[in-house]
Amino acid sequence: MAKKPGIPKGTRDFNPTQVTRRNYIFDTIKKQFSAFGFQPIETPSFENYDTLMGKYGEEGDRLIFKILNSGDYLKKVSDEEMENRSLPAITPKLSEKALRYDLTVPFARYVVQHQSEISFPFKRYQIQPVWRADRPQKGRFREFYQCDADVVGSKSLWQEVEFVQLYDAVFSELGLNGVTIKINNRKILSGIAEVIGAQDKLIDFTVALDKLDKIGEEKVKEEMRSKGIAEDGISKLQPLFQLEGDFASQVDALKSILNTSEIGLKGIAELEFINSGISTLGLNTAKLQLDVTLARGLNYYTGAIFEVSAPKGVAMGSIGGGGRYDDLTGIFGLKDVSGVGISFGLDRIYLVLEELNLFPKTITETTKVLFINFGDKEALSCLTMIKQLRKHNISAELFPDSAKMKKQMNYANKREIPFVVLVGEEELNSNTFTVKDMANGSQTNLTADELIAFVK
Which of 88, 246, 382, 454 would suit a FRET pair with 425, their CA atoms being 20 to 30 Å apart? Predict the structure, then answer.
């Protein structure tokens, strides 16, 4: 017996319902991207090896899928290199290309390569799959989609204000009310590290601070001590552990902590600008919340940092995130091009909408009318009517075989097709159609025009 086929670990098949629901999310996001003035681009699924390598750190480089060269891919590798089994030396000779790890580095490459054709500031969105050679587990896949929007070539904080509104617009249209858009600023984190004398331990400090909600104040302090942060510095953080209240109250508390840090106060001023803009413009259903523990990709972001969490009661990680970066294109030689961007977590958004039963039932409807096949003569008449229905944007199909009625009806039930049309000898002679409503079993005899109106 032939072995049953399968797919690689960390990849997925999607059935018609899942694809339709995913497309619903894609279409909603695309609609809002366009409404906010973002233009779509696409980049190749694979890039040159040296475009990707060295851009994500040692761990990221390890997770990049490399593509073997065509033909005799070993011809550039010497016997000595093969014997030494030195992967860093051998891999670039075996592989000149690699699958993209994310959409950010390809976007940076795109901007540099096409800079003479781009009008800055450049607002782009991109929705494409990416690949990571990660260990598959629940919610983590080796192939998945990213939905990104970025603006490059502008340092204006109005872009951050617009991105908060964009998040709100997308999640409101999806019916996902009550999401929290958390915001912080890299300059504030740098300022705190400066105040406590831990500039050289910024990463250690923020990694520990990020765990405040999970392990509590004392455990965070223990971790900071273990990383070599001085006791007097930790004591200066005490007001930070007790931050509460609304946005303005938390900002006031931060000002007292950071009153000696120029960079920290600059970060506070940027947050106040964004919050003031949002307060004036308003949000539909989302809430903007200051979260001083938020650090996402600290080596990457230079200003505002965003993270979106699902409504209360839904056990899910972040469903979106992003922030401001000052030198995205510097890795390819184009300096001082500031940008800000956000992304949407498609798979997590899908799971949240599914858990809350927020997918509209109508989006999974495909065929609205099935014509029963009684034979070639009847089938031809049915196809004539089907053509008219399709012109009126009504999805219709003919069962391809003149099978038993029970089989054709079972097909309609399994596909959840709401209407079945029967065209037998009597209907052919009277030029009418018998329509069966599958929900209640009622049957009606109609003319062509009446059938169109009835189904519509």
Answer: 454
Name 266's Cβ contacts closer than 8 Å, sequence gap at least 6. 187
For the chain, what is the domain count? 1
Would residue 330 count as lying in a domain?
A: no
Global model pTM greater than 0.85: yes
Is residue 295 situated within a structural domain? Answer: no
Query: What's the residue count for the chain?
Result: 456
Query: What b/e readout covers 153-189, taking b as 16+ CB neighbours within 10 angstroms?
Result: bbeebebbbbbbbbbbbbbbebebeebbbbbbbbbbb
CATH code where residue 413 lies? 3.40.50.800
- Domain limits at 422? 365-455
Query: What are residue 221's phi and psi, to 5 degrees?
Result: -60, -40
Q: Whose CA is closest to 378, among 302, 320, 324, 432?
A: 432
Spatial contact of 258 and 188, defined as CB atoms under 8 Å apart: yes
Please name the residue that has the structure tokens 């366009």. Answer: 34
Query: Hey, is 185 helix, strand or coil?
Result: strand
pLDDT in tens, 243-284: 788 888 889 888 988 989 999 999 999 999 999 999 999 999
| 402: confidence class by pLDDT, cuts 50, 70, 90 | very high
Count CB-CB contacts under 10 A for residue 244.
Answer: 7
447: in domain = yes
Rounded to whole angstroms, the Cα distance separating 234 from 228 reads 11
CB 420 within 8 A of CB 370: yes
Domain assignment present for 438: yes
